[in-house]
Amino acid sequence: MDASAPVRDLPLRLLSPENRLTKTSVWERARECAAEMERASRRASFDVDAYCRAANRGALVLAMAGDLAESERSCWRQARVLLSLVRGGVLPRSETVRVLQPWINIGRLRVIRGDWEGALPHFPAPEGLADAGVFASGAYPEHGLTPDEAESALGTEAGRTFVTHTHVVETAKALARGRREDLLAAHVSRWRGTARALPHVREASALLALRAGARVPEPAPDSVPTLASAAVEVHAASADVARTDTLLRALDALAEGAPSADLVTVLRAGAGALLARGREEDGARVLRRTARVCRALRDEAELFAVLGELAGTDPESGAAEEARAVAADSGYAFVRARSGLPPLPPAEREPRLAVLLAAEREAESRTSLARETT
């Protein structure tokens, strides 16, 4: 690549921070979600916070284990529970906005499968929510939101902000995955003014500028790097070799911060940009730091990926041996595939995942009884 050249393709993944979940052991997460779901549905007063947390994370576990079909069914179960409780008066109408989360998660599953176009209806803008057909398609058409329920979801500032931010961020991610520069440019143009505070908008704007051959302004000399600014710097360094040292300084500063899954995402991408520039020593150093963050978080999946990258850069590091140990009993589909382990059977036939499905179905059964007795 020239010293200064436009990036030829939009990256498949935007790097901006979004409170990503740490990818701890699939088996541990499944047990934890099952136990939390059981506690939430057994309480005299249904614990909607605990239930939604467990249901959202449980669906993610199923997807990461490779059973995308069961993950989608999990999202439908959650939607039925929440919508029936709202309609039955067990939960107030103000909780209707929670029903959107499993619908959004189904859209994310579409993106994972490569169907970015099919994902877009799952990320409706506020003004189109009543007409978006939320849950009015697929396996359970009877669970579509009514216009009044859609309005209830937007009835508070927090609800409207949630819908807006989800639309802006998830749509941008899906369009980047689809490499639709034209649609992403229109999306950013529409939301640049009202959603500029969202880092995904700034990152997408920078990507579009770089794609057009423009330069992204360098950070001020006295500015403190953030995850959002470093995400932009990763792209800038990929397009302009003169930004490599700026990127490295940002990564070194961030590496000393509090561990988080978002930090891992930016450090990994930054290490990749350094390696692509022939900075093997610097790239390996950032990867070693990233591995330490992963160990502190007990992030099994990211640690495996980082160790694989480090092994290719520094064969004497012992990373390959550690990666094999991490993968020995992993439930993550991509870890198993890369390490030569056979894929897991469907969740229904894997006892360590079936416990989660049993908890979901039991919670749905209990909430049906709760609705009937109110």
Could you characterize what this model shows?
This protein has 374 residues and is an all-alpha fold. Helices cover 63% and strands 0% of the residues. It contains 17 helices and no strands. Helix 7 (157-177) runs antiparallel to helix 8, helix 9 packs parallel to helix 10 and helix 13 (280-297) runs antiparallel to helix 14 (300-313).
Structural class designation: mainly alpha
Rough shape?
A: globular
Provide the gyration radius in Å: 22 Å
Report the span from N to C terminus: 66 Å
How much strand content do the residues show? under 5%
| Low-confidence residue ranges | none
The major beta sheet can be summarized as: none
Number of strands: 0
Indicate the mean pLDDT.
91
Could you spell the SSE succession in H and E letters?
HHHHHHHHHHHHHHHHH
Estimate the helix proportion, in percent: 55-70%
Number of helices: 17
